[in-house]
UniProtKB/TrEMBL annotation, chain A:
Residues 16-98 form the Lipoyl-binding domain. The keyword NADP does not apply. Its cofactor is (R)-lipoate. This is Glycine cleavage system H protein. Signal peptide: none annotated. Belongs to the GcvH family. The glycine cleavage system is composed of four proteins: P, T, L and H. Binds 1 lipoyl cofactor covalently. It holds the Pfam family GCV_H. Keywords: Lipoyl. It comes from Neotabrizicola shimadae. CDD domains: GCS_H. The glycine cleavage system catalyzes the degradation of glycine. The H protein shuttles the methylamine group of glycine from the P protein to the T protein. The modification N6-lipoyllysine is found at residue 57.
UniProtKB/TrEMBL annotation, chain B:
The keyword Transferase applies. It comes from Neotabrizicola shimadae. Its EC number is 2.1.2.10. GO terms for molecular function: aminomethyltransferase activity; transaminase activity. Residues 9-261 form the GCVT N-terminal domain. Residues 289-365 form the Aminomethyltransferase C-terminal domain. The gene is gcvT. Keywords: Aminotransferase, Transferase. Belongs to the GcvT family. This is aminomethyltransferase.
């Protein structure tokens, strides 16, 4: 798994990249009550706002971690947003991306670097 | 958090795992490890303990007797103060000359003085306002050596009567003085959650011991500001600075019930408060806009600031909104023109550039469970 400073995790699955948020981020957000997912076939650039997560308290964004195309979204989150708190690293993935060059992931943090960052 | 004041029970909140955030000049616990959702539902099913010591506790000590004090206070509020019996508490509103609301408050008749609780962010202004305007009839004394705790929920009575058995005799909005281990407690049966419960003014020196005793009970959990906000929103209660402020009148805010007969047109002491011209005329003919409840149709919350549309016309703005954990749905409050205020009116709210359907509804979203 790779990690961004914005507390996203990325997992390579075949030629796709699966994106979610870390347990640390899910805990900080609090109880998630609504997830707004992007359309599939959306082409995104790094830093684009892709997903909106609403907790009881506030709304926050998930940004595209790399350039690519959204090819799948996790529609289970629309009906059961609480999955983000229950299983952030597993069932609560947000979207899958096709990226031109998987080597861009090399620039992201590995697990040790991420845990060092969040202390 | 430099420059922020700390609550007397600060160390307790930290020890309980409270996440401290700046609020109204204080470091306040926004939530504990259980999280807003569980804290909210715990308060609805058992009892939640809130530290609201940031709020202003003020004594009005009469200089010329209680009647002169009551009549003096009536010059600042469209509320019947004279008719409030000893041992009773009432909701009040300080108004300005435009008929707007300077603050909302609770006041109690404690026999030889009035006890007033005001909002944290307004307390300095309120105290100055009362000191200036009540100088002939009252000494205005800020209480600075007492914590204020709220114990709210269906099991609040069961929990509190273990420490103070007499509270079982209090009805909604009763208020009195009680003793616990040598400390004088000022307890009212009231709160800000829509639940039965109590607000307890406790001397600082006894506050930690008292809070510890309550928190040791199985029914009682500590509750932060996050759940306090979602609970009061479900109860349809106004948050000063959001749902009411100097630009909203009591009638627009749907708080006409707080203006008793004695102060209304034809009443024995009608008018005589700031903004009476506007407020009395709105009571008779209705205000041009009104605070309403909103139920968004989808799951997306409509938060404060969400613009509302009827067709292409912008018709109002959400003043507070979020998710109602007991209702498992988003809820909000807003001001809309009177013609659109009828329950069931279909509007749209613009969320992140998209117009989403929303329906006006009666308040509260969830019926209160006060022990009348």
């Amino acid at each position: 798994m790779k990690y961004t400073k914005e507390h996203e995790w990325l997992r390579v699955e075949g030629d796709l990249v699966v994106v979610g948020i870390t347990e640390h981020a899910a805990t900080a957000l609090g109880d998630v009550v609504f997830v707004e997912l992007p359309e599939t076939e959306t082409v995104v650039a790094t830093g684009d706002e892709v997903v909106v997560i609403e907790s009881v308290k506030a709304a926050s964004d998930i940004l595209a971690p790399v350039d690519g195309e959204i090819v799948a979204v996790n529609s289970k989150l629309a009906d059961n947003p609480g999955l983000v708190n229950e299983d952030p690293l597993g069932a609560a993935w947000f979207f899958k991306m096709r990226v031109d060059d998987l080597a861009v992931l090399d620039d992201l943090m590995d697990e040790d670097e991420y845990y060092e960052m969040i202390g | 958090m430099a420059g922020l004041l700390r609550l007397g029970l600060h160390d307790l909140h930290v020890a309980l795992g409270g996440r401290m955030v700046p609020f109204a000049g204080y470091e306040m616990p926004v939530q504990y490890p259980a999280g807003v959702m569980r804290e909210h539902l715990h308060t609805r099913s058992a009892a939640g303990l809130f530290d609201v010591s940031h709020m202003g506790q003020v004594l009005l000590i009469p200089k010329q007797g209680m009647e002169a004090l009551a009549l003096g206070f009536e010059t600042l509020m469209p509320v019947d103060v004279l008719g409030l019996k000893e041992g009773r508490q009432r909701y009040g509103l300080l108004t300005n000359n435009d008929g707007g609301i300077l603050d909302d408050l609770m006041f109690a008749n404690r026999g030889d003085h009035l006890f007033v609780v005001v909002n944290a962010a307004c307390k300095a202004d309120d105290i100055a306002h009362m000191t200036t305007n009540l100088s002939e009839v009252a000494e205005v004394r800020a209480v600075t050596d007492r914590a204020l705790l709220a114990l709210q929920g269906p099991l609040a009575e069961l929990a509190l009567e273990r420490l103070v058995p007499e509270v079982a005799g209090l009805r909604f909005m009763d208020q009195g003085t009680f003793e616990w281990e040598g400390a004088e407690l000022w307890i009212s049966r009231s709160g800000y959650t829509g639940e039965d419960g109590f607000e307890i003014s406790v001397p600082d020196i006894a506050a930690l011991g008292f809070a510890d005793m309550l928190l040791a009970m199985e029914e009682v959990a500590p509750i932060g500001l996050g759940a306090r906000d979602s609970l009061r929103l479900e109860a349809g209660l106004c948050l000063y600075g959001h749902d009411i402020d100097t630009s909203t009148s009591p009638v627009e805010a749907d708080l006409g019930w707080a203006i008793q007969k004695a102060r209304r047109p034809g009443g024995v002491r009608a008018g005589g408060f700031p903004g009476a011209g506007r407020i009395l005329s709105e009571l008779e003919t209705g205000a041009a806009r009104r605070r309403v409840g909103l139920r968004p149709e989808g799951r997306a919350p409509m938060r404060e600031g969400t613009e509302l549309f009827s067709g292409d016309a912008a018709v109002g703005r959400v003043t507070s909104g979020g998710f109602g954990p007991s209702l498992e749905a988003p809820i909000a409050m807003a001001y809309v023109p009177a013609a659109l205020a009828a329950p069931g009116t279909k509007l749209e709210g613009e969320v992140r550039g998209k117009r989403l359907p929303v329906i006006t509804c009666e308040l509260p979203f969830r019926a209160s469970t006060y022990k009348r």
